[in-house]
Design a protein that fits this description.
Length: 220
């Protein structure tokens, strides 16, 4: 009898950016120190010291969990370092809202960096996905992928600008609790929406019959 084991296999489901990039656990972990900071700050009568101690405790626990799960030490300690920098800023200024200053500045810088990368035809979404897929810069030899990654990257620029538009007035008004709430709402939920929308943009931009993100088609 003929071997049909390799015949008529169903086509693989198209991968999404969410499946490739993940990010849910990292986004949730990043929200924990600010939440603990604001909670302890409130409970302790607006004590900056209590807020910093709680934020550091949360960041240390998260780093420990990541290390036990096999994460690289540098990746596991990034959150702890970010919390330390935010704490130093707060201790220097004495304003609890300055705990969110690094987050605000990083979103401004990220929006600028992603926009510049698109203009230079090195869209950062392509750099990130290409790195995850082990393609290095091969994706840049595919004009369709470069165009799709560029359009998808504009969604990420909007993500950062949305955060700036929300964080900046709250920061200027010294609304510590509102900043903490915004930090949670605009982390994983916004990232999930960004992944979904940018993936839809990429799929719509790529021409019919394109082999997909894993198989860059070199220009002729």
């Amino acid at each position: 009898m003929p071997d049909v084991s390799h015949q008529t296999r169903p086509a693989p489901e198209p991968e999404s950016l969410a499946a490739l990039l993940g990010g849910r656990s990292g986004a949730v972990d990043a929200s924990a120190p600010p939440v603990f900071f604001v909670t302890a700050w409130l409970v302790a009568g607006e004590s900056i010291g209590a807020g910093i101690a709680a934020a550091f405790a949360a960041a240390a626990v998260i780093a420990g969990i990541r290390l036990r799960r096999g994460a690289r030490p540098r990746a596991a300690l990034v959150g702890l370092l970010a919390t330390g920098i935010a704490a130093l800023v707060v201790l220097y200024t004495g304003r609890a809202s300055d705990f969110f200053l690094i987050q605000l500045a990083s979103n401004v810088a990220s929006a600028l960096a992603w926009a510049v990368s698109i203009v230079l035809r090195w869209p950062l979404l392509g750099v990130v996905v290409g790195g995850v897929l082990g393609q290095k810069a091969r994706w840049r030899r595919d004009p369709d992928l470069v165009r799709a990654y560029g359009r998808g990257s504009w969604v990420w620029v909007m993500q950062y600008l949305i955060r700036v538009a929300v964080f900046l007035p709250l920061y200027l008004a010294d609304e510590v609790v509102a900043l903490g709430i915004a930090r949670v709402v605009l982390t994983w939920p916004l990232i999930a929406a960004c992944l979904a929308v940018s993936w839809a943009v990429i799929r719509k931009t790529l021409p019919s019959g394109h082999p997909g993100l894993r198989h860059p088609a070199p220009s002729e």
